[in-house]
Amino acid sequence: MDTFIFDFNTDSTLTNDTNSTHSDLDWTAFQSAPPPTTNSPFSPLWSSQQDDAVAPNNRSTLVATPHDDEIYFEMEHFFNGLNQQEQLPPIQPQQQQQHHQGIIEPIHVNINVPDQIESPSRTHLSLVINEQPMSCLSTPMVPRVSSARSQCYHKLPDHAVKLMQEWYNANLDDPYPRSPDKKRFITEGNITAQQCRSWFANRRQRLKHVKRNQSKSSLSVASSSSRVHHSIQTRLSQLPPAEAQMLAHEHCYYCQQQQQQQQQQQITLSPSPIPLSIPTNPTTATTTTTTLNVVINQQTVEQLIHNSLRKLLYPALM
DNA sequence: AGGAATGATTAAGC
DNA sequence: GCTTAATCATTCCT
After folding, report:
1. d(CA A262, C1' C5) / Å
2. A236 and A309 Cβ atoms separated by less than 8 Å
3. Rounded CA–C1' distance between A155 and C9, in angstroms
4. Is the CB of A202 under 7 A from strand B?
5. Of A214, A233, A259, which one is at a domain's C-terminal end?
6. Where in the cell is it found (predicted)?
7. Short-list A164, A154, A167, CA closest to A186
8. Is A136 (CB) below 7 Å from strand B?
9. Residue A140: which domain range?
């Protein structure tokens, strides 16, 4: 694991900590990336044009992994805080001066990034080897001769796709066609066995991807917020408590959210007792097993985590 | 032009 | 031999 140290300046530019001995990352790649559309300078790097995670063209050594999403969310979380800051009332000239005098220092946050292993480009491999692909059909669509892969790109017959799609939709719980089904797709759809396998493999993978992203988008907010909050708080804890708290509430989106939730809960959690009904059954009167179905919402969980963190980080304040 | 969709390939795992 | 995951290449769409 490498530890990259990012400097978060208030103007959201990314600078290289040249004194760091933790990172040998080539920062020129980041500098040559297109200008960010948001306050986060990382968006262009981690957002791919399709569902696959693709490393930037000029960063062949930086291969995107599933961890990148987590890192991205952590970065995004922090910059959400900076975005929020922009929506705050304009800084007074005196405060602005304090900014430039360095009273509000850049915050350093350590992000752990798994070691990346360079893998050779498959395009290059196929060009070098120039092997004949397994399933090249003699169909008319042969656009270019640049690589073996491009020689056999065809759109599958609509009829074949329709057949497989119908079968897939009807067998979502077990989308693995057996031999008879495959033979039917091959003969009726006029495709090869390889094309049939590829189609189902792609279909399964891409649907899985969609499902994963859907569940992640609902869960990641809470978990990543909490994690990044913790890492930032760890750093801030090295500062004097008063200064750290001011910085945290100014920059940390999570803290701002927590503050809002606290205020909301103080209003909504006024005396409204939870209705608890204990089932009474004459036949099991002697047994004392009782099931209480209590729904704990996300706010409550985050509140509990937040309080625990505060106890850990600021015991003097508790 | 750029992103999304789609077909294909490869390596690794079982 | 089949599947998954990652990735590339091409076509489609806006």
Report:
1. 43
2. no
3. 13
4. yes
5. A259
6. Nucleus
7. A164
8. yes
9. 120-154
